[in-house]
Amino acid sequence: MAKLVSKTYGQALFELALEENALEQILEEEAFVKEVFADYGDLVTLLNHPKISKDEKIQVVENIFKGKISDTMLGFLVIVVTKERYDELEQIFQYLEEKVKEYKNIGVVSVTTAVELSEEQKARLTQRLLEVTSFKQLEFSYSVNPQIIGGMILRIGDRIVDSSIRTEIDQMAKSLLKIQLS
């Protein structure tokens, strides 16, 4: 259910931002709102309190954010409070960020290697991935896992390219186990 809610609300905010030609502004405001919620944990507690009316919760949100964010984002937050969806705000914003990256044709790449890559290797990897994918821009996250022995594992969206030596060894071992000696 939470996935559906975050998708529905995130999609609505994305479409509204597109319609108003305010995608960048909404992303900046989204970051600000996330920061405020992170800095003031009591705000979530207050919004979850059953004895505080929706009108009072809306008043609190308006007092905190009015003049600091656009009317569009403020209106969105009021709807989220009215519908009591503030617990899913983080997932809503995460969906929004994913939609914006998809819209701007930005690929998110996770790279796992056995040793740290040099800047030159990272540049070559970026260049090669831009050549073989349809993305205009890439965002990378790098991690080191010595257990893969060598090679690399790439994750781009829901696709995985595993060229690690560990996987090659595992596949060879499976193949050898299938061989029957007569």
TrEMBL record:
Record's signal peptide: none
Membrane topology: Peripheral membrane protein
Keyword terms, alphabetized: ATP synthesis, Cell membrane, CF(1), Hydrogen ion transport, Ion transport, Membrane, Transport
Record InterPro entries: ATP_synth_OSCP/delta_N_sf (IPR026015), ATPase_OSCP/d_CS (IPR020781), ATPase_OSCP/dsu (IPR000711)
Location in the cell: Cell membrane; Membrane
This protein's GO CC annotations: plasma membrane; proton-transporting ATP synthase complex
Classification via SUPFAM superfamilies: N-terminal domain of the delta subunit of the F1F0-ATP synthase
Molecular function terms from GO: proton-transporting ATP synthase activity, rotational mechanism
Entry function: This protein is part of the stalk that links CF(0) to CF(1). It either transmits conformational changes from CF(0) to CF(1) or is implicated in proton conduction.
Family, per entry: Belongs to the ATPase delta chain family.
Designated name of the protein: ATP synthase subunit delta
Lineage, uppermost ranks: Bacteria, Bacillati, Bacillota, Clostridia, Lachnospirales
Gene designation: atpH
